[in-house]
């Protein structure tokens, strides 16, 4: 992966398109086009070590979405180019939101809460729940627990949840949130402070909101939130729900543990800088006063950590994560130096 750029930098990565329903192949092909620029099917197949049929299938998926387009042809084949990441994420988010809306029932007229007895209320629909949440968030003095089993959220729900979290965090309250999604998402990146209060679980038994261990809310029907929520203020029941939350919190894990390690040691940084600059394994080894075998071992370790199969894919991953400045692509008639990131 030869280039004149050698500066290492940290920045915001390109979001994973597989989160929005695209295949892993489509995600990798898009990252390659977005990082290195336009390319032919043959180039992509060679660079990624992927059969041409899989590359073409991935490009067709990207083309149908508008994430990539086929440009002019020449004797070496048609070139494909990537659309800007922000536009692609917008298209994917819009498509997902349309699917959610297609399954969303018509809105239910607002009804006031119904008292069911001491410490029990029925909030009959979403407007009633939202109004009550505003009151409870404003009255919370110590801590808030949330359990969210949904695999998808609408943009409105994500925005409302972000406002609630920020309102609680701004008052320096304890906030703990359990979910089954690998946050942050492209629509609503998780705040660095809030991310320390989020854990990811394989599955969760119910939707649950607990305020100051005094009041709990959960859906009347777990399969249809439009039927409203039950509000419980009876201490034994609330404490039992708190214990349920704590058991799942203990068993859950920090979603950042799922991300590949991208923090480079000083020697890895120096080696990557030399290889990006166009050095071979041998010349990089001489510069660093290490053996060629050590260079190979360091590169193999990096590929394992980032979970890729070859050096080109490593370059795509590090470029997309912006651990290194994206290098320029070699043309088919150029001969990349043996041993560099390409």
Give a short overview.
This protein is an alpha+beta fold and 342 residues long. The chain has helices at 24-36, 41-48, 52-65, 85-103, 126-139, 155-170, 192-195, 235-251, 266-276, 281-288, 292-306, 311-320; strands at 39-40, 68-74, 77-82, 114-117, 120-123, 143-148, 174-179, 198-200, 208-211, 215-219, 229-232. It has two domains: 17-90 and 260-320, Arc Repressor Mutant, subunit A (Orthogonal Bundle); 114-257, Endonuclease Chain A (Endonuclease, Chain A), CATH 3.30.870.10.
Number of domains: 2
Instruction: Quickly count the helices.
Output: 12
Q: What is the level-2 CATH architecture name of the largest domain?
A: 2-Layer Sandwich
Strand order of the main beta sheet, please?
4-5-11-10-9-6-7-8
**What is the overall shape?**
elongated
Number of strands: 11
Let me know the CATH homologous superfamily of the largest domain: Endonuclease Chain A
Averaged pLDDT: 77
C-alpha termini separation = 4 Å
Q: Report the top-level CATH class of the largest domain.
A: Alpha Beta
Backbone structural class: alpha+beta
Fraction of residues in H or I helices: 40-55%
Q: Biggest β-sheet: count, sense, barrel? A: 8 strands, mixed
Return residue spans where pLDDT drops below 50 for at least 5 consecutive residues: 1-12, 183-195, 326-338
**SSE ordering:** HEHHEEHEEHEHEHEEEEHHHHH
Strand content: 5-15%
The radius of gyration over CA amounts to: 25 Å
Using the coordinates shown, work out and report the CATH topology of the largest domain: Endonuclease, Chain A
């Amino acid at each position: 992966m030869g280039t004149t750029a050698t500066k290492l930098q940290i920045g915001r990565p390109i979001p994973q398109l597989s989160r929005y329903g695209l295949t892993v192949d489509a995600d990798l092909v898009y990252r390659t086009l977005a990082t290195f620029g336009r390319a032919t099917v043959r180039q992509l197949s060679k660079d990624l070590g992927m059969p041409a049929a899989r590359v073409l299938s991935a490009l067709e998926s990207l083309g149908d979405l508008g994430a990539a387009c086929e440009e002019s042809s020449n004797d070496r084949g048609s070139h494909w180019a990537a659309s800007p990441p922000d536009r692609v994420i917008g298209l994917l988010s819009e498509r997902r939101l349309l699917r959610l809306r297609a399954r969303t029932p018509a809105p239910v007229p607002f009804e006031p809460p119904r008292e069911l007895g001491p410490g029990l209320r029925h909030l009959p629909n979403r407007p009633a729940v939202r109004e009550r949440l505003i009151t409870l968030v404003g009255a919370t003095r110590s801590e808030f627990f949330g359990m969210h089993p949904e695999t998808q959220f609408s943009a409105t729900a994500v925005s409302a949840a972000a406002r609630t979290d920020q309102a609680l965090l701004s008052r320096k309250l304890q906030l703990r949130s359990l979910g089954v999604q690998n946050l942050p998402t492209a629509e609503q990146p998780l705040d660095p402070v809030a991310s320390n209060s989020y854990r990811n679980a394989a599955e969760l038994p119910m939707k649950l909101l607990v305020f100051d261990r005094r009041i709990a809310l959960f859906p009347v029907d777990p399969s249809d939130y439009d039927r409203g929520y039950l509000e419980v203020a009876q201490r034994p029941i609330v404490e039992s729900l708190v214990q349920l939350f704590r058991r799942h919190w203990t068993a859950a894990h920090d979603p950042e543990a799922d991300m590949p390690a991208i923090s480079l040691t000083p020697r890895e940084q120096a080696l990557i800088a030399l290889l990006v600059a166009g050095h071979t394994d041998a010349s990089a080894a001489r510069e660093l006063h290490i053996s060629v075998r050590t260079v190979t071992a360091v590169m193999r370790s990096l590929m394992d950590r980032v979970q890729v199969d070859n050096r080109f894919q490593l370059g795509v991953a590090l470029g997309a994560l912006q651990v290194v400045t994206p290098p320029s692509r070699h043309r088919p008639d150029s001969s990349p130096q043996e041993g560099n990131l390409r």
